[in-house]
Amino acid sequence: MSETPLVDLRSDTVTRPGAGMYQAMCDAPVGDDVYGEDETVIRLEATAANLLGKQAGLFLSSATQANLVAMLAHNARGEEILLGERYHIFSSEAGGVSALGGIVMHPLATDATGGLGVAQVMAAIKEDNPHLPISRTLALENTVAGQVQDPQHHRHLAEAVRAEGLRVHLDGARLMNAAVALQQPPADIVAPFDSVMLCLSKGLGAPVGAMLVGDRDFVSRSRRLRKQLGGGMRQAGVIAACGLYALENNVERLAQDHERARLLAEGIADIADLPVRQHTNMVFIEPQADDLEPLRLHLEARQVLFGHQKPPIRMVTHLDIDDAGIERAIEAIRSYYGKA
């Protein structure tokens, strides 16, 4: 009897390369990327820059490293980043910009959609006063917990702070989910930003890596910073090939993840006392606190996994989750609540 396949909804970071991506790795021309000689890395960097409408790109080992490099490139020690309290640079990257860069973070309360208000951001910009840090960068995010941010609002924010001399960075870890949901070219969405980070190893399905794009001067500074952080890689084309394959094959298919997330949310929406909401490829449910661990164990016994968050619990669809997996997850949740 074959083993029951795992339905892993913990995150879209758990995706594994398919046959086409493995073949791309095998076929990739490689060289020493620190010397600028890896053809596949060069192609990936140019592809990402073109896709996002920027002058140049840089391949890094992770989204966290890419955000860190961007903040170090934009800010001197003692200068300040304005950002949302829920955004990953502040909440989920181990305080790296402060620990390693001496950069001050000023977190702002986000609204229900994950956004920041123009007046709110402008009020946070510091006056020229030796007692205060210099506000240097506004860091935004899209998507935020799966919620697509309005590109026009981001444009208004960027224009407002740039008039005060700030730079603007986008943590676009799931930017392509936003582009697919909005049916807009990603270059249009990120046009107002000085720099953009795009993760390759979430819904796009590469096993590792992220892109950082901006103008040539910014990318040149970032390349030096990547080296200082130990991020210089040698025959990196083997993994860069996965990123190229992802950008060429796995962007439009994100719509399937969004649709499956919708089906998952609808399938459990009628379960008593279980609020549910869905944004792009993420579904959030809110079981009672006493149900959290029993529900997790119940699903785990049925080869369905979700993360260990406290309510709300996040479930994330991705390219390794098919229609049968969605149905199994729904049935497992229903069976816990005696609805099966």
List the topology elements.
Layout: E1 7-8, H1 19-27, H2 39-51, E2 56-60, H3 63-74, E3 80-84, H4 88-91, H5 96-101, E4 104-108, H6 118-124, E5 135-141, H7 151-162, E6 167-172, H8 175-182, H9 186-189, E7 195-199, E8 210-214, H10 216-228, H11 237-249, H12 254-268, E9 276-279, E10 282-285, H13 292-301, E11 304-305, E12 313-316, H14 323-336
Parallel strand pairs: 1-11, 3-4, 3-5, 5-6, 6-7
Antiparallel strand pairs: 2-8, 7-8, 9-10, 10-12
3D architecture notes:
The protein has 14 helices and twelve strands. The strands form three sheets. It has a seven-stranded mixed β-sheet, with helices on both faces. A three-stranded antiparallel β-sheet has the order 9-10-12, covered by helices on one side. Strands 1-11 form a two-stranded parallel sheet. The protein has two domains: 231 residues, Aspartate Aminotransferase, domain 2; 84 residues, Aspartate Aminotransferase, domain 1, CATH 3.90.1150. The protein is 41% helix and 16% strand. The chain is globular. α3 crosses α10 and α12 runs parallel beside α14. β5, α7 and β6 form a beta-alpha-beta unit. The longest helix has 15 residues. It is of the alpha/beta class.
Considering the chains and any ligands shown, give keywords for the structure:
single chain; 340 residues; alpha/beta; Aspartate Aminotransferase, domain 2; Aspartate Aminotransferase, domain 1; 2 domains; 7-stranded mixed β-sheet; 14 helices
